[in-house]
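Predict structure. Chain length: 403.
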Amino acid sequence: MNYKKITALLFLFSAFMITEPGLAQKRGIPTDVFTTGISISPAIQKSLNIKTAPARVRVWRHTLNFPGTIVPVPGQVHDMFSPVTGIVGDSHLPTVGERVRKGQLLTVIRQTLTSPEQLSDSLKALSFEEGKIAAFEALAKNKTTLQLRQEQLKRAKALYQDGVIALKDLEMKEAEYKDALLAYQTAQYQVYLYKHFSLKKKNNLAYRDFSIISPISGVVQKADLTPGELVSPTKILFVLVNLSKVWVKVHVYENEISRVKQGDLSWIQPLSYPGKSFQGKVAIIGPALDPVNRTLPVFVQLYNPGWILKSGMLVSVRILDASGKALLIPSSCILKKNGKNYVFIKKRNSFYRRQIWIQKASGGVVRVVKGVKPGEEVVSRGIYLLESQYDHEKHSIRAGHVR
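Prediction complete.
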């Protein structure tokens, strides 16, 4: 459409306007607000290519945006201890960041046997046998305690949801469960080490060599020992973590909790790798709010190809909210002006400008919070032509009032 044709159509558009500025003044309506409709004949609407779309209630697909932090999946972090006091072997020791595989030898801890342990090559030395028996007893005891703490935590969550107990009581049960889980995992590892050792002799001295084997395929997150160092069972030798899957921890504000559900699709973009995006799902929704900032911890689980996502990395998270229905209109209907949002509503052959309140959604639509009713026809094309005429008529009213 050339310039002359547009000018002619706009002239016809203005000629066919039916406005009532005098009526607005008679009713005491402020003259800086144009409240009457802009009437346009069907022929002119067609010439100006004005189109409308109905406001409809549909499934609302909206993304919620949060900052997040990469954390390991629970159970995929292993602290490696020595079962005895001994000397670290002089073989290669894995360093921080090094990948290890399940079953790989990490180091050997050598324990020199002293009297009366040297009296028996058949491994019936009193101190060793007592330690082995104690390790198996500790495993059974810690397993029972873990099961008890798990049941107590389950009951506490239900009581908290019903408002029977306070948040601090729930947090105490969570702490007790975590302590019991750590104790059980440590006991498991001690039993494993007592099952895997070798007895050697050199220069009339007997040694027990304990092989420290990696229980998982992972990466070394911490390595705090050197060859020849004397270590005790309380010292952490290595911290291993499996990063094939990771969690993203996000904090959801209280007013958005109802819009996040387990299984919701999520997209994760690490700040360290601009342009890269990973897809995951909401795996865990925390049971209690943080009393300080009134947020709920939510964990998104995702695969980590190449293990490029590291513990502690900062990421941006978009969680898809498609759980409810809302009144939606095309985003092309929105006229932004002076920090506010407006639409033009069509009634018969008249158009009325109206302020509305919206929330962004995906797929080229917006959610109407206030200002439009279901079924109303909203202008989706031609809003700037209507706005131009709206301003013209408003100024005409103001000028007429001044005269």
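Summary: The first strand starts at residue 38 and ends at 39.
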